[in-house]
Amino acid sequence: MDLKRSDLLQGTLDLLILKTIEHRPLHGYAMAQRILETSREVLTVQQGSLYPALHRLERKGLITAEWREAESKRMAKFYSLTASGRTQLAEEMDQWQRYARAIQWVLQAPEVAS
Amino acid sequence: MDLKRSDLLQGTLDLLILKTIEHRPLHGYAMAQRILETSREVLTVQQGSLYPALHRLERKGLITAEWREAESKRMAKFYSLTASGRTQLAEEMDQWQRYARAIQWVLQAPEVAS
DNA sequence: TACTGATATGTAGACACACAAGGTATGGAC
DNA sequence: GTCCATACCTTGTGTGTCTACATATCAGTA
């Protein structure tokens, strides 16, 4: 009924996840918080998007999981980048820059002379 | 089989189309050419994406079609923005800027102190 | 004791949309 | 007469995000 648009552009979630665990392992819940925080409250990652994405990335061998105790004293699944995950991250960052620049060019294209 | 990734991020095609006909009506085929050109060969709009998108936008009342003779002397369907299409364009440009900025923030987030 | 809220993980089903692959037709060049 | 660029279109498929739901633990509090 409402015109609610999807929060994330399809294809960018993987990039966000990989980037967020670039420097240290995090569990899913913390990733979502971290992304919300670093995006200054703009990007909300839904749990129904996050967990399937994590499993997908794990199946692809880009991240690995390990159960550890979180700060909260509760067990949580910490994910970290694999070597190929790191390569993938670099590629996806590159592609994003390229893509965003291209869109920008279209949006700023000078009006054509009639 | 090949790792061919999708050329366009889902959700951005409408924006590209609306922007491309902002200042003058164009037919579908020409839009694709124009987007390819203004994006400096980065963004390729497939016909199988373009035409359904045009029909979608027309159904939503954001654009209107009119058969006219093209430069090529052949009949072609020229699309132009409606008033609500113009509003939508402004909104989508806004949202894109907001979104791209947010991604950028995540990608440039300073490493957390351990 | 029972409750509430934040933490933490997960699944099932719906839906949107870009894609590949196929098709039709016309006009100009050769 | 054949080929290519132009111009339109549809069908089916896959991917990925969303909503909604289910489960469990722990801390604080009434």
Percent strand of chain A equals 5-15%
What is the CATH architecture assignment of chain A?
Orthogonal Bundle
Question: How would you characterize the largest beta sheet of chain A?
Answer: 3 strands, antiparallel
Mean pLDDT of chain A: 93
Tally of domains of chain A: 1
The SSE order of chain A reads: HEHHEEH
Gyration radius of chain A, rounded: 17 Å
Largest interface: A-B, 35 and 35 residues
CATH superfamily of chain A: Winged helix-like DNA-binding domain superfamily/Winged helix DNA-binding domain
| Shape call of chain A | elongated
Helix content of chain A: 40-55%
Q: Please give the count of helices of chain A.
A: 4
**How many distinct beta strands of chain A?**
3
CATH class of chain A: Mainly Alpha
C-alpha end-to-end distance of chain A: 42 Å
Poorly predicted runs of chain A are 1-5
Give the structural class of chain A: alpha+beta
Task: Name the assembly state.
Answer: homodimer
Strand order of the biggest β-sheet of chain A: 1-3-2
